[in-house]
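Sample intake sheet
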Amino acid sequence: MDPFSFLFSLERLGMKFGLENIAALCAALDHPERAFRSLVIAGTNGKGSVTVMVETALRAAGHRTARYTSPHLVRLEERFVVDGHEIETPALRDALATVQNTVESLIERGVLDALPTFFECTTAAAFELFRRANIEMAVLEVGLGGRLDATNIVMPMATAVTSIDFDHQAQLGDTLESIAREKAGIAKPGVPLVCGPVPEAAARVIREVCESQHAPFIPVSETVQTVPHGDTIDVHAAGRVLREIRLALPGTHQRDNAAVAVALLNEVASRGVAVSDAAIVSGLTEARWPGRLERFVRDGVDVLLDAAHNPAGARALASHLQEIGWTRVTLIFGAMRDKDVSVMLASLAPICERIICTTAPTPRAMPAAELADAASTLPAAVEVVPDFTEALARAIEYRRPVVAAGSIFLIGPVRDILR
């Protein structure tokens, strides 16, 4: 079977938590995850943004870097970035073939009693790709949770938890404390954990986990200050003073993400990896993270895309729209079945004139009609347009600013059209 076909055939298996499969895979591959230093970043929201800022800064500091993120917007190759460039398709195919052959051998020998998941195989492929590229530092975004996520097989230099809020309760538990405990599971003995601005109950749990692991607990609130000056910020951290920084990623919530990135880079620097002030400034001002408050113009209409896929993300999006003065927008909304869509829509509805419910192009999507039911009591006109391509065209016709949100599985294909 073609390696890509093999990989995508694993999507039907869904999610499985535990480190047994990835441990067996890494051992059979002769431990590619040990060939480079790594950083691991978890969190409900913001982990992708922090991953990109940190990797950009390390690259600007002259280090050979890689980053691993998920999910992708359009192309699988987006998940694997080496020295600032997406991996080439032939190189990815070759790494996936190696992983596929290894899986088949492990199954045949009885080491594995079932196929690994899609994410476990992409994670193993990332490690293999990064080893082949001879990179020095890999910045790894946790897929889901932390404790039992496949990325947690590495022994990192430092880790971070960016934020804690409600999402994936079926897997992580239905309290902030249980979610925090799962995400704090990336803590390792002697490895510092940078903790972003999280609710006090979550911070208490993360600190407890760090203490049990003898992992230094680094609260960003005590180590980094960001002082806003209009469109720029000053950053004060561990003797560094970075002035008039214009963050590349839009939204005031990115100030918190920038603080986590700076704190994490300071921990890396304290462990002997050179990271200059100029390199950190590059990380904050040059990071690129598509599909997050990203603006386009289509037929003379402003369109904003945001991969807000949980209640906290929806609140941040609503806040941003109010800040930039967008009111009476046309919202294109598509979400997964396991999301709290009522809470998300309630945050966004006050700035919407119209909500067009659509179905994200993935089997896990909630049908447009069900989304419309959830939106039916809100103070906005509601339409059902299942096809996302037609939904975008319909939204443009109203000649109001358009916002597309709800799931990255919707944002990627919409972005592909707009590009």
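Comment: Residues 294-418 form a domain with the Protein-Tyrosine Phosphatase; Chain A fold (CATH 3.90.190.20). The longest strand covers residues 37-42.
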